[in-house]
């Protein structure tokens, strides 16, 4: 925990520097956000097995169809773009996180891919490939989601550093695995929702870190040991802050 606190202190100093020097030209900021959102969309879908490259993802976002790729892979890109817009709306309006919002996010993620289960808690047992953790039985999901929301609303949870709170929200949510499909993508949207509410830039869980990401999540689920996952998220937060800070330096 001491190591994690030191990491947070280091990151907070970078964020303070960013906040104090936040003066990017309009088009620089627009292109920076487009870069982050493209990388977020590509990586979050690639983690789940989408075979579109980052450049193919870019052209799909521009409305172009990529030959040899499935309709589902195209929809995963378009749906994620729409889900990011919804996250931005929630942040701009200052809305509190709710079960209804989570279902809406998931509905956007699975729209046109699996409409029967879009925004609907699963009614079947699922297993996470390669993980020791087994998600709860379907009849327990409603209760466990209520417990998650109760945890989130506690005063002690609100006192957590935004990175710790966002990482734990993500990890606990994935452990419940409330949806048949799209739980991972929804969890990463929730993580960025929590971070951007507190003024952090969106982060990208990179597909290259997939193994470390899965292993840290499994430890969180089986041992209630969250530090490794929190540190992984903190590393991605620092990467995004560094990108913003380097952009500011180029515009000085």
UniProtKB/TrEMBL annotation:
Gene3D superfamilies per UniProt: Fido-like domain
Domain Fido positions: 97-235
UniProt xrefs under SUPFAM superfamilies: Fic-like
Positions bound to ATP: 181-188, 213-214
Site annotation Important for autoinhibition of adenylyltransferase activity: residues: 48
Keywords carried by this UniProt record: ATP-binding, Nucleotide-binding
GO MF annotations in UniProt: ATP binding
Record protein name field: Fic family protein
